[in-house]
Write a structure and sequence with these properties.
Blueprint lengths: L13 E5 L4 H12 L3 E6 L9 E4 L5 H8 L4 E4 L11 H22 L3 E5 L12 E4 L13 H16 L5 E7 L1 E3 L7 H9 L5 E2 L8 E3 H14 L10 E4 L8 H11 L8 E2 L1 H14 L7 H8 L2 E3 L2 H7 L7 H14 L4
Parallel strand pairs: 1-2, 1-4, 2-3, 4-5, 5-7, 6-13, 7-11, 8-10, 9-12
């Protein structure tokens, strides 16, 4: 049962961010350090800047996870195998499911009582039906998704919620379409396709999609950690996270970035039924393609979400405006290119 007023806060000094070198994780690291916390990071990649105790290691390595978490009072688990063409199905299982089991086991074994988990809006998407102003009452899809990322993130979220109890408090945050500096998957893919001349609009342009800027998504993780402890109103809860400004069409949202980078902006659009049919074929003949039925549906039907619950329970509101988020993100992409 959800809290009906903001949960009380409980301080902490030492924490671990698993996946702290990624777009979201690194923003969390910076905000945690600014708040005076001692931070340890575990990631497959080194930190973009050597700001704290950064350890290169794998979430699937029990010893590495335990060592990174030792001495911490709060663990933030942001690491995941994100959907990418060509990633073997087994990777999603070992990282997104087994990796999270290892994190839970480490917390229990070390007596850590607070675990904040980064989930995704994809756990409620079935790849077909629109979602308008979705909230936390949405069920998981009735049928197991074919998409390995969505399927394993559902399993992981269920596992995290089942782990909540008197000795370990867990909660899950579901960021909407996240973007910002170091974004390799959302905006990054669009920029990459535009640079290669392969970017095109799909659908009527009427579908809306909720986004969240990475610093705002990081901020709500810290708010959750402050209010998470065994028996607290936040323990065992799930929260959608987005930005306040109205949801826009995905392509309308992306195109100012392409214009700012001097990249071509397509004017024509492929109709949804044509794109969906092409995706059906692509899944058979080019399984490593970005074109899938799930990705087409994600861009051609509404996927909008409310975060009233995070406002009420956690005191969340975006700390970076839409205009400032655009400025910071565009500045990053002007300075960096996809490698």
């Amino acid at each position: 049962m959800s809290a009906h007023s903001m949960a009380p806060a409980m301080d902490y000094t030492r924490c671990t961010v698993i996946g702290g070198a990624g777009m979201l994780g690194f923003e969390m690291v910076k905000q945690l350090l600014a708040a005076g916390k001692q931070v340890t990071v575990l990631d497959l990649h080194p930190l973009p800047e050597p700001l704290c105790d950064g350890r290169v290691g794998d979430i699937r390595d029990r010893a590495a996870v335990r060592a990174a978490c030792e001495g911490s009072e709060v663990v933030f688990q942001t690491a995941a195998a994100v959907w990418e063409p060509g990633t073997p199905a087994g990777i999603y299982e070992t990282v997104n499911v087994e990796g999270n089991r290892i994190v839970i086991d480490a917390c229990r074994g070390l007596g850590i009582r607070r675990l904040v988990y980064t989930s995704t809006i994809d756990v409620v998407c079935d790849g077909r039906k629109p979602i308008v102003d979705g909230d936390e009452s949405l069920p998981y899809p009735a049928e197991t998704p074919d998409d390995h990322y969505s399927r394993t993130k559902i399993e992981a979220e269920k596992m995290m919620m089942a782990a909540n109890g008197p000795d370990l408090a867990t909660c899950a945050l579901r960021p909407a379409g996240m973007y910002g500096p170091r974004d390799r998957y959302h905006l990054g893919n669009i920029v990459d396709m535009a640079r290669r001349g392969k970017y095109m609009r799909v659908g009527s342009g009427k579908a809306r999609f909720t986004h969240v800027y990475s610093e705002n998504a990081a901020h709500v993780h810290l708010l959750a950690a402050d209010r998470l402890f065994p028996g607290s109103p936040v323990a065992g809860q799930i929260y959608f996270v987005g930005d306040h400004y109205p949801a826009t069409n995905l392509f309308d949202f992306m195109e100012p970035y392409l214009e700012g980078l001097g990249l071509p902006v397509p004017k024509r659009s492929i109709p949804y039924p044509v794109a969906y049919a092409a995706a059906c074929v692509a899944e058979l003949v080019a399984p490593k393609s970005n074109l899938t039925r799930f990705s087409v549906a994600q861009t051609c039907v509404d996927h909008t979400y409310r975060h009233d619950k995070a406002e009420r329970d956690l005191g969340y509101s975006p700390i970076v405006s839409f205009e400032e988020a655009f400025r910071r993100t565009l500045a990053y992409w002007k300075e960096h290119s996809i490698e």
